[in-house]
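# step 3/5: fold
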Amino acid sequence: MLDLILIPIGGYLLGSISGSLVLGKLYGVDIRALGSGNAGGTNAFRSLGWKFALAVVVIDLGKGALAAAALPPLAPWLSSQPADPTLLGTLAGLAAVLGHIWPLYFRFRGGKGAGTAVGSIAVLAPWCVAPLFLVWLVTLIGTGYVGLATMLAGLSLVPAMWLLGPTPLHPALGALAITLAILLMFTHRSNLTRMATGTENRFEKARLLKRK
């Protein structure tokens, strides 16, 4: 039982290490005071350039993957009857995403969770990574909206998890897919509002299908 408590806590604490905020301190800036105010890779790219953004993405992906992969093996040290490893991995990965969105170390103001979610999925359900990336890329090329691309990729996680995964699918993975899709829609709700009002920023260089 102790493993079901401490491993998610460990995932949350690991997820609370925000790449953009930690690196920002080294640069002497708070990324939340720049651009859109979001502590994620997209705002990092727009505000401080691709090198900074790449480092942020690597950290955010890495902590999701690390939480899902490295924390569940600690279960035998925490409990004489450790829980199912897949369940522990999903709890740790989800907790890392929550930590990224609401980081303990940064007054609960973090990013939107997409990078950390992908890192967790890469470990727990690697068959979903290619479909997610394809949906994200096609949407970005077609619209130029990063937020929309991320939301649609998150929604595509649900069918990809069931249609491409093993049969029967582990219930924890199904629950994780639904929860992450809902979370990504929630954290990107401001993007939807800006798209509705026509004020959402586009990546025009990535948008190949442009109106003439």
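# step 4/5: annotate
Residues 125-212 form one domain.
# step 5/5: archive (pending)
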